[in-house]
Amino acid sequence: MKIALFGIDVTEDSIHFIQELISKLEHNGGVVFIYKPFFEMLSGKVTFTQDPIFFINKEDICRNADIIFSIGGDGTILNAVTLVWDSGIPVMGINLGHLGFLSSISREDIVSAIDAIEQKNYRIDRRTLLTLETPADLFGDCNFAMNDLIVHKANAMSMLTIKTWINGEYLNTYWADGLIVATPTGSTAYSLSCTGPVLTPNSQNFVITPIASHNLTVRPVVIRDDSIIRIKVEGRGNDFLVSLDSRVTKVNNSVELTIRKAGFSINLLRLTEKDFFTTLREKLNWGLDIRN
Asked: What whole-number distance in Å separates Cα of residue 21 and Cα of residue 82?
């Protein structure tokens, strides 16, 4: 099995678990590929019994990997998605971060998880992405997101006026700090903290959630994921911010945004005993009696 290791940060308390992962893969005879900047962070902190092969871009992964292990938290997986792109290579998240909705493998379960993968005791979750289209081609080829697109004010002291259409039909004008268009995967991220609903991964929907709306009757709206969303932003300033997952850019008010479902999905690998509802209960402490 050819495994690509991807990470963007290394902490002292994660070194032991990263070493455990590398040693287990090498013991099992796996071919290890590693993201070169990640290897440089690990230099002198972990050991390899054989020289790893480096990768730095999508083309390297497509040629060399069967699975990519994302080592960190959910933010690391979102960065890994920009490398995997439309290749179909499964991504497995090892949670060395905090909450870890997407990074489903805990640090204590690394060894058993690798054994389960080699025995093909896993499932593939196909996650929908959204894509942004603009005349200015704001994000170049990397114009997609697995979590969400967020429109946000650039000036902390003023709100935005956000006009929104769905399939050419006028939806609403939001007077708010911003607006979130989230996939089912992103429904448990920023949208959730703004009172958006939780969508199951296979629900075939997007959710539009305002951020700090100045009209208290405005609520999140769930729409079909084959809808085309158009957004026009106005405000006191000339610019606003747009983010696709962790990538942010400043945009002039003259630019209209068109959001639609991406033409490819991302394959997240999960162990068979872990399902979406189990993750919800564990991460959000649902069903626990916390009364004293």
From this structure: 23
Specify whether 74 is catalytic. yes
- Kindly list the domain boundaries of the chain, sorted by start residue: 2-120, 130-263
Condensed to tens digits (0 to 9), the pLDDT of residues 91-136 reads 999 998 777 788 878 888 899 999 998 888 889 999 999 999 998 8
For the segment(s) 130-263, the CATH number from 3.30.1360.40, 2.40.170.20, 3.40.50.720, 2.60.200.30 is: 2.60.200.30
Question: Amino acid identity, residue 229?
Answer: I
CA nearest 269: which of 72, 91, 42? Answer: 91
C-alpha–C-alpha distance, residues 5 and 69, integer Å: 5
Say which of 13, 60, 66, 74 is annotated catalytic: 74
Nearest partner of 86 among 261, 264, 269, 268, judged by Cα: 264
Domains 2-120 and 130-263 share a fold: no
User: Would you tell me the crossing angle of helices 15-27 and 110-118 to the nearest 10 degrees?
Assistant: 30
Q: pLDDT (tens digit, 9 = 90+) per residue, 206-216? A: 999 999 999 98
What's the CA gap between 290 and 106, in Å, rounded?
24
CATH number of 2-120: 3.40.50.10330
3-class secondary structure, 32: strand
The pLDDT tens digits for 32-76 are: 899 999 999 999 999 998 888 999 988 888 888 999 999 999 999
Q: In angstroms, rounded to a whole number, what is the distance separating the alpha carbons of residues 90 and 113?
A: 14
Whether pTM > 0.90 for this model: the answer is: yes
Please name the amino acid found at residue 139.
Answer: F
Contact residues for 21 (Cβ-Cβ < 8 A; gap 6+)? 5, 69, 71, 94, 110, 114
Query: How far apart are the C-alpha atoms of 29 and 122, rounded to whole Å?
Result: 20
Euclidean distance between CA atoms 191 and 207, whole angstroms: 8
